[in-house]
Design goal:
The protein has 378 residues and is of the alpha/beta class. The protein contains 15 helices and 17 strands. Strands 5, 6, 10, 11, 12, 13, 14 and 15 form an eight-stranded mixed β-sheet that branches. The chain has a six-stranded mixed β-sheet with strand order 8-2-1-9-17-16. Strands 3-7-4 form a three-stranded antiparallel β-sheet. 45% of the residues are buried. It binds flavin-adenine dinucleotide (FAD). Flavin-adenine dinucleotide is lined by residues 6-12, 31-34, 40-45, 96, 119-120, 136-138, 142, 164, 199, 266-268, 278-280, 283.
Length: 378
């Protein structure tokens, strides 16, 4: 089969790897607008379950990913001077650039062509050039845009502002920190992803953002302001910028996932708020799901139909949980009257997918302490 893939991110490269591994005769080209060393972002997070899926799909890249990652089992909630730790949550982090490098090397070893610095504009001729065209070209997908009538996308720009920083202070666990100042409420999502660096994502509502007057600040002033808000948490370390800018999360859905020989994958197809797990996990699990549909049939139209039929309910469920989590953070100021342990309990249950039973399994001590505090018998 001749396969063209637009986008050399996790979705595009991982799908190429899995297909080529299944059948070395596939002729696969990835078209990537950036160079091999250009990237953005800091760390990406995988749950224990995702790692098991990656292992079953491709042991070679799984072995490399797990050699480089940082693992933890705690979610820490920080408010005022208190830190509440909830254990029993299995996660690990790896630098996005390392992940991309591992996947690039694996592509090369398997004989997949990655055409770097090649921006795809002429989608129609690429579509006619092979048996399958995959749009793994990210949240601003050119392919989705070109065939908007077919895909029926819905894009919802959310009100909160967020910015991705890094820091050399190591957060040993997924740490959710809440700080208030005269402008309003700021939330930080942070975790270490290698021996020296943590991701540090800061989020605030539009009122807080406007009160802080970020619109009139340059990048350095913004970084210094945010670092000052979280000074007690950064322990003397500064924030690291990677051309970091305030952005709004865009919730992407598509009415149709494919037509003829064209399909969307990863962020181009759907997004899920970063507070519930990384888009990288979903992108790579999409690749696994699509490849499995090609295991069952070489017929492109049947495989794409099966992919949508099987994967759509999984993604809808995930997006529903992520939606609840996103809305929680959009309304974070409504929870600031809670004590740290109440805040932690509310956060653990925000997606509606974790009940008391599940929480008790993960961390019985935390649940006992919470209900003891609420004076409710368990
Ligand atoms: C600023 C920012 C920072 C982020 N940081 C993190 C992070 O630290 N951790 C995390 O888990 N997630 C992060 N994310 C989210 C994460 O990047 C995505 O969820 C994940 O990478 C999705 O994988 P993907 O392969 O679907 O898309 P992407 O990783 O976005 O890959 C799409 C690729 O397509 C290429 N492309 C797009 N259009 C064209 C075209 N016309 N021609 C050729 N190539 C094209 C792009 O250059 C890109 O390499 C970040 C997102 C943003 C916007």
């Amino acid at each position: 089969m001749k396969i063209n893939i637009i986008g050399g991110g996790p979705a595009g490269m991982y799908f190429a790897i899995l297909m080529k591994q299944a059948d070395g005769a596939h002729d696969i080209t990835i078209h990537e607008r950036n160079g091999p060393d250009d990237t953005f972002g800091w760390g990406v997070v995988f749950s224990g379950k995702t790692l098991a899926n990656l292992r079953a799909a491709d042991e070679a890249s799984h072995a490399e990913i797990t050699r480089e990652f940082e693992a933890w089992d705690n979610v820490d909630v920080v408010k005022d001077v208190e830190k509440i730790s909830i254990h029993g949550n299995s996660f690990s982090g790896i630098a996005r650039i390392r992940l991309l490098k591992i996947l690039q090397r694996r592509c090369e070893a398997l004989g997949i062509i990655i055409s770097f610095r090649s921006e795809v504009n002429d989608i129609e001729s690429l579509r006619g050039d092979g048996d399958l065209l995959v749009g793994a070209d990210g949240v601003n997908s050119t392919l989705r845009h070109a065939f908007a009538e077919k895909f029926q996308p819905s894009l919802s720009t959310r009100p909160n502002k967020y910015i991705w920083y890094g820091t050399n202070h190591l957060f040993h666990g997924l740490t959710l920190t809440f700080r208030e100042n005269g402008a309003g409420v700021f939330a930080a999502h942070s975790y270490k992803f290698d021996k020296t660096t943590s991701t540090f994502i800061v989020e605030c509502d539009p009122q807080t953002w406007s009160n802080a007057e970020f619109a009139s600040m340059n990048d350095q002033e913004t970084l210094e302001y945010v670092a000052a808000v979280f000074a007690p948490d950064l322990k003397g370390q500064s924030l690291l910028s990677n051309n970091s800018k305030w952005i709004n999360f865009v919730l992407v859905k598509n009415g149709n996932w494919h037509f003829d020989n064209v399909v969307l994958l990863g962020d181009a197809l759907h997004t899920a708020h970063f507070s519930i797990g990384s888009g990288t996990k979903l992108a790579m699990e999409d690749a696994i799901a699509l490849k499995e549909c090609f295991d069952a049939t070489p017929k492109v139209s049947i495989a794409l139909g099966e992919f949508a039929r099987k994967r759509k309910p999984v993604i809808e469920d995930y997006q529903a949980a992520a939606y609840e989590s996103m809305v929680w953070f959009e309304n974070a100021r409504d929870y600031m009257h809670l004590s740290p342990i109440e805040l932690a309990y509310s956060l653990m249950k925000r997606s509606g997918r974790v009940d008391d039973e599940e929480l008790r399994k993960r961390d019985p001590k935390f649940v006992r302490e919470y209900f003891a505090m609420k004076s409710v018998k368990v």
